[in-house]
Amino acid sequence: MIRKTRLYTPGPTPLLPAAQFAMAAADIHHRTPEFRALFQKVLAQLKVFVGTRNDVLLLSSSGTGAMEAAVTNLTSPGDRVLVLTAGKFGERWTGLVKTFGCVPDVVSAPYGQTFSLDQIRTALKPEHRAVFVQATETSTAVRHDIEAIAKLIRESAPDTLLVVDGITGLGTTHFDVDGWGIDVLIGGSQKAVMIPPGLAYLSVSDRAWAAMETAKNPRYYFDLRKERKNAVKGESAYTPAVALVAGLGGALDYIAGQAGGDLEKGRIALVNNAEVNAAATRAGLAALGFTLFAPTAPAAAATAVAVPEGMDSGLVVKALKARFALIAANGQGEMQGKIFRVAHLGFFDYLDTVALLGAMEHIAKDTLGLPVVYGQAVEAAQRVYAAASSS
Ligand SMILES: *Cc1c(COP(=O)(O)O)cnc(C)c1O
Questions:
Q1: Rounded to an integer, what distance in angstroms lies between the CA atom of residue 371 and that of residue 71?
Q2: How many domains does the structure of the chain reveal?
Q3: Last residue of a domain, one of 221, 236, 257
Q4: Burial class (CB in 10 A: 0-12, 13-18, 19+), 259
Q5: pTM for this prediction
Q6: For labelling, which of 3, 9, 47, 294 has a CA lying 20 to 30 Å from the CA of 87?
Q7: Both 213 and 309 in a single domain?
Q8: Domain residues for 291?
Q9: Is residue 231 in a domain?
Q10: Helix axis angle, 63-74 relative to 224-232, nearest 10°?
Q11: What is the Cα–Cα distance from 198 to 208, expressed in whole angstroms?
């Protein structure tokens, strides 16, 4: 039988064909009126996609570049900061802030869980320059409660900046950026916006712009004030990834088109789509006897699943690839071999979920030797879909 390659990884994610065509046609110079029109259009669309009145900037880098930009533009060596970490991406914040001389207090939760608000309340000090956290911790497929965390910070440390890595949270979680007071919210191109890696975007609040005036950490390529000045003119400070910008415009058009041309409604539909697909996937895999790795605070961006004790999750990843050319993700770091992860992030629809669960029935039976009745995972997912579409 032939096989079609299908990415189910939580970044990079499947590419939107319309965005690929836009990229192929993007043979334009970046200091021209044509590019300025495109760049301004995409920046305006990104504001709607992020859901904010704050400035949104676009950087030519992977997501980590925007994380580094947040640290260097907002902090000075010696600053006390608070890092909330529950996995590999949380640990990236700790590494970044230490690299730039900040002194982190760290609140951590075990892999597969989120923090309690009491933990954060106890650790948070008004002298913390900033709090760094993920919206969704992609390594464990956990969602953190950004609304509650933001409320706590705004009440008890009003001057502390809240920096959220929403790289897999955007497009899979509803945010009220301005209402909750998120100072920086970061996204990446290879996640919910359906294009290849290479762009990062971030919203920046007035409080964050003011904080930049006193931040002393060094920055050159990722100087956000310089980017803002250029963005006003429809340009970026350096040569941008022009083709990706064109692709991003195509993807945001598609998302708007899913809701009759209204990008805000399209974004809401995209988030709800991820929620239903994630819930259907959890139900389907649980019906096969798998244990969810993050049962208490599951993300809609991705689902992490533990394999039965003594089994290797790598076997599932390998078998999915060998039999169906379906690319799933193993666990990262210490979680490798214990869990596997599948995404619902961006260009995934309900039928992609059905396909995955159909494949998983074969893998569970043939590779892991679990007692499987064909159709049982698919049926559980169909029940979730039916309930969601009737409500
Ligand atoms: C993908 C991802 C990143 C960014 O990684 P890059 O490889 O730099 O694009 C950061 N945080 C989270 C939560 C992610 O999922």
A1: 50
A2: 2
A3: 257
A4: middle
A5: 0.98
A6: 47
A7: no
A8: 6-12+263-390
A9: yes
A10: 110
A11: 24
Please, what are the averages of pLDDT over each run of 10 residues along the chain (391 residues)? 96 98 96 98 98 98 98 98 98 98 98 97 98 98 98 97 98 98 98 98 98 98 98 96 98 98 98 98 97 97 94 96 98 96 98 98 96 98 97 78
Q: Give the mutation target among 167, 189, 193, 332 for probing the ligand 1 site: most ligand atoms within 8 A of CB.
A: 167
Per the domain annotation, does 305 fall within a domain? yes
Which CATH number fits the domain that encloses residue 253? Answer: 3.40.640.10
How many whole angstroms from 134 Cα to the centroid of ligand 1? Answer: 10
Contacting residues for 210 by C-beta, under 8 A, at least 6 apart: none
CB atoms near residue 374 (< 10 Å): 11
Task: Identify whether the C-beta of residue 81 lies closer than 8 Å to the C-beta of residue 111.
Answer: no
Q: What is the pLDDT of residue 235?
A: 97
Q: Which atom of ligand 1 is nearest to the CA of 134?
A: 13
Specify whether 202 is located in the same domain as 141.
Answer: yes
Distance (Å, rounded) from C-alpha 299 to C-alpha 212? 32
Pocket of ligand 1 (CB under 6 A): 10-11, 62-64, 89, 134, 138, 165, 167-168, 188, 197
Ligand 1 center from residue 380 Cα (angstroms):
31
Q: In this structure, what token pair is assigned to residue 340?
A: 């596997």
Q: Domain with 365 in it: what CATH number?
A: 3.90.1150.10
Give pLDDT, residue 391: 78
CA distances from 384 to 364, 378, 387, 391 (A): 21, 10, 5, 11
Length of the chain: 391
Same domain, yes or no: 248 and 301 = no
Residue 272, token pair as written in the block? 């709800």
**Is position 356 within any domain?**
yes
Portion of the chain with pLDDT greater than 70, in percent: 100
